[in-house]
From TrEMBL:
A GO molecular-function descriptor: iron-sulfur cluster binding
Keywords, sorted A to Z: Iron, Iron-sulfur, Metal-binding
TM ranges: none
InterPro entries: 4Fe4S_Fe-S-bd, 4Fe4S_Fe_S_CS, Helical_ferredxn, Sulphite_reductase_A
Lineage, highest ranks first: Bacteria, Bacillati, Bacillota, Clostridia, Peptostreptococcales
GTP-binding in keyword set: no
Residue ranges of every copy of the 4Fe-4S ferredoxin-type domain listed in the record: 213-244, 295-323
Keyword Iron in record: yes
Protein name: Anaerobic sulfite reductase subunit A
Organism listed in the record: Romboutsia hominis
PANTHER family: ANAEROBIC SULFITE REDUCTASE SUBUNIT A
UniProt cross-references to Pfam families, sorted A to Z: Fer4_22
């Protein structure tokens, strides 16, 4: 069903929906940016279209909704535990095609990568419905077209906004509370980015040769292991665990799952002081190969969706898309 309605009408119905759904969308958080007097665009609960920031790329993706930065999994005492409660409301998330495709990658890792599904991820993920926000034009550093993630049909509702009119494509019957005039329109998908890259085919990548290649050495001096590239990435899914014991009673506490990143110091540290990937170059190699080779070998497509957030966030101006291009060049040089 495709309809158009006024913003006021849309906002009214959104308010009604908020009785049943927690509505989450990118918002601009003033003075919360990295530098003074700057904002940051992040996912927060909203109640109207006016609160949403849909004209810019969000600095962080929607992944923190299903995979929170810090998540209390359960509380424990000496001989029993209690799972942490979660909100009963369903989740309606406004996001772009690349971020819906990124959620598919997280689903692979958390639900299809082994014998068991991740219980805590599933509990949040099964509450989610997507509202697809079209992209009229590409943002800086995006290369979603090259990564084949500029389009999706995995959404419950699609939205396009034109001045004071809202165009909706409603696929989910539970969202048919919006009413308006029937009309024809298409959700905008970016067809071209500001630049394109050639992504190497996995059968052309010699992983052993690439692993030893000198290309990674440049990152030893350039990368400062801040992990920003990991934390803004909608497909990075690594975490660490912390058991926190309360001061009042040290036999009682909580288990938390917390984001971790492969670029950060200590990520591969083991008891006894051994570390698998000591240098920044080795970490860059691991991240790159995970995004465009290892994941692909297991699931049949690339993990990176080309959102460009890692390039946006890197304080050292390290470009991940350039890194993929270098791997491609080396792979092509092979006879
Ligand atoms: S690696 Fe960079 S471009 Fe690829 S999905 Fe992650 S943040 Fe986006
Ligand atoms: S954001 Fe840049 S400097 Fe920071 S860890 Fe990632 S690649 Fe290194």
């Amino acid at each position: 069903m495709k309809i158009k309605l006024s913003k006021e009408n849309f906002n009214e119905k959104l308010k009604t929906l908020s009785n049943e759904y927690k509505i989450l969308a990118p918002v601009s958080l003033e003075y919360m940016g990295t530098f003074s007097d700057t904002d940051v665009v992040r996912y927060k609960e909203v109640s109207s279209l006016d609160e949403m920031e849909l004209n810019r790329k969000s600095n962080f993706s929607a992944k923190e909704i299903v995979f929170p930065i810090t998540q209390i999994l359960f509380y424990f005492t000496e001989n029993e535990f209690k799972e942490s409660d979660i909100d009963d409301k369903k989740l309606l998330i406004f996001l772009r095609a690349c971020d819906i495709n990124a959620m598919k990658r997280l689903d692979e890792i958390y639900l299809k990568n082994g014998i068991d599904e991740d219980y805590y991820y599933k509990k949040l993920r099964e509450k989610v419905k997507f509202v697809l926000v079209g992209c009229r034009e590409s943002f800086r550093n995006c290369f979603c077209v090259s990564m084949d993630s500029n389009k999706t049909d995995n959404y419950s509702m699609g939205i396009k906004i034109d001045d004071n009119e809202v165009f909706l494509e409603i696929k989910d019957k539970d969202l048919k509370i919006f009413n308006g005039e029937k009309c024809e329109f298409e959700i905008d998908f970016v067809k071209e980015n500001l630049f394109n890259i050639e992504v190497p085919q996995i059968d052309k990548i010699n992983s052993k040769e690439i692993s030893k290649h000198e290309m990674w050495q440049e990152y030893n001096s350039r990368c400062i292991a801040c992990g920003r590239c990991n934390f803004v990435c909608p497909t990075c899914s690594c975490f660490t665990m912390q058991d926190v014991f309360y001061k009042e009673n040290e036999k009682v506490g909580e288990r938390r799952r917390i984001w971790a990143g492969c670029q950060v110091d200590g990520f591969t540290s083991m008891a006894g002081g051994h570390e698998f990937r000591k240098t920044k170059g080795e970490r860059m190699r691991f991240k790159t190969m995970h995004k465009i080779y290892d994941f692909n070998k297991r699931f049949g497509y690339n993990m990176c969706v080309g959102c460009g957030r890692c390039d946006d966030a890197c304080p050292q101006y390290i470009s991940f898309s350039k890194c993929i291009e270098k791997v491609n060049e080396i792979s092509k040089e092979r006879k």
